[in-house]
Amino acid sequence: SAPAAAQRGSFAEVKCSLCVVGIQALAEMNRWREVLSWVLQYYHVPEDLPPKVLELCILLYSKVGEPQVMLEVGGSWLRAQANQRLPEFRWLLELYLAQVLLPLGLFEGAEELVQGCALEGSEQQLALLGTVRQSRARWTRQEQTRSAAEERPDPATETALGVLSQKLLTMLTLLRRALRSMSNHFYLLPYKKMLLATFLLYLVVVRLDPASPTSLPFIYKLVQLFRQAWAAVLSPIQRPPIGD
């Protein structure tokens, strides 16, 4: 009867208003994670949510950066034939696209949803599909820009590597010069004098008998010659200039 229907309508409005107040209270207490489960305790299935409650839930979870929470609930509500006849349907469809599907990059799902919904006239459907395609194009450009930025080497890293390479090259050059200097130094040593000193030392120690009186003057002369040769070997050597 009409009075019973009016009573049910009034009860539904009061219930919806209480849910809206409850959602706002949970959000203010930073208990927004409990909102959806709390609402479904009273409406049981997503398709029965009032448009105002669904709108508030979509906005809340989008604001806190968790739009995926409303992915299944919002899709179920929008696909219900009874809800597609409501005056709020067009607005909720646009809100669901803008706050849930498109930010998540679900462009194919968005196109399928728009094409499967009963909209008034093809112009509305084409407008929504155009919005989805524009969002997909922006998403693709952003991904390409991000990939190019990741592949591009960091200028600071390039500078550091350049400085390190220059230091390494300088060290190798200095090492090469040092090795060349050592090589030239050894080449300049009087090898003949060194060999002579070694031979004299060999004669003194091995071949001559120090106990023999006849060998003493000869040993004395050999020792003097050995000292002179050794002094010549250890004398400072003027190193010639070294070119690169």
Automatic annotation (TrEMBL):
GO cellular component, one term: peroxisomal membrane
GO molecular function, one term: protein-containing complex binding
Pfam family, any one: Pex26
GO biological process: protein import into peroxisome matrix; protein import into peroxisome membrane
PANTHER family noted in UniProt: PEROXISOME ASSEMBLY PROTEIN 26
Protein name as catalogued: PEX26 protein
Natural source organism: Aegithalos caudatus (Long-tailed tit)
Gene: Pex26
